[in-house]
Design goal:
This protein is mainly alpha-helical. It is built from 12 helices and 2 strands, in the order ααββαααααααααα. Strand 1 and strand 2 form a beta hairpin. This is ABC transporter permease.
Length: about 290
């Protein structure tokens, strides 16, 4: 009888649990490896489709006759990254996006917290926000040129506007989503308004704030490129538009891909910062969150 029990335990694992091959950590590593494999495979399929369409000059109503091949763009990238002027375009765009985005975050987060906390502020400010928010960045270019003494300041202003509204709205919604019971409990423990903002409203709204920051970063890049194309002297947007004017197709695609890569990296840095500042949040990628649903 004892031998049978021991044999059963060996087959099912100690305490009747099935044996795990490596435990939860191994399962997590396998899931991460599978996610990365699918991501790399999708990129390779995209490049393959691009190569086929451009190499064979497909004309399926969408014309690929003038679109450069991946090899041509890669060859142009090797040359461009050795050019000091091209690197200057990248540095200038990064400086602009950094300045505009930082100013937007510094202005939108406190304003969103105050609007979410005090109804009178929300009633006064929200209508103006809703009128200005739908105006696209490109429509602000003429006005920004009139408002600011230099084109550099006008471009940073347009970038600021692109990031400001997503961060503001998400911060406002984050404060509104906080459980009122937490506020009442903090009040009963003697917390004043400053303590509420520090220990309740800001931590409670952080997930929404970082959602707004991530969305705002993407909109800021769109706004920046539009402004650089119209009124810039340097920057990736200016480089891309100049390439179009000079019929340099490989440079056009290079500029587009560079915008995408820099946008991806900047959003990734924000997500990493969110993980550091919010260790209590589940660490899931967007694809994993969708799968969990």
């Amino acid at each position: 009888m004892t031998g049978a029990i021991a044999t059963a335990r060996e087959e099912t694992g100690q305490g009747g649990r099935p044996p795990s091959a490596g435990g939860p950590l191994t399962a997590l590593r396998r899931k991460t490896a599978w996610t990365w494999t699918l991501s790399v495979a999708s990129l390779l399929l995209f490049v393959l489709a691009w190569h086929v369409a451009t190499f064979y000059r497909l004309d399926l109503h969408i014309r690929f006759i003038n679109v450069p091949t991946p090899q041509a763009v890669a060859a142009r990238a090797v040359i461009a990254f050795g050019d000091a002027r091209f690197l200057q375009h990248i540095v200038v765009s990064l400086q602009r996006i950094g300045a505009g985005f930082a100013l937007a975050a510094l202005a939108a987060i406190p304003l969103g917290l105050v609007m979410g906390r005090f109804q009178i502020i929300r009633v006064l400010v929200y209508p103006v926000v809703e009128v200005l928010r739908p105006i696209p960045a490109i429509a602000w270019v003429p006005m920004s040129i009139m408002l600011w003494p230099t084109s550099e300041e006008s471009i940073v202003f347009i970038t600021f506007l692109g990031a400001f509204f997503p961060v503001l709205i998400n911060t406002l919604h984050g404060v509104a989503a906080i459980d009122p019971a937490l506020i009442r409990a903090s009040r009963s423990l003697g917390a004043n308004e400053a303590a509420l903002f520090r220990h309740v409203f800001l931590p409670g709204a952080l997930p929404h704030i970082f959602t707004g920051l991530t969305v705002g970063m993407g909109v800021a890049w769109v706004s920046l490129i539009a402004a650089e194309m119209i009124s810039g002297q340097f920057g990736i947007g200016y480089f891309t538009w100049e390439a179009y004017s000079l019929v340099q197709y490989a440079d056009i695609v290079l500029g587009m891909l560079l915008i995408g890569v820099l946008g991806l990296l900047s959003s990734g840095l924000l997500r990493l910062l969110g993980v550091v500042l919010m260790p209590w949040q589940p660490r899931q990628s967007p694809s994993n969150r969708e799968a969990a649903r």
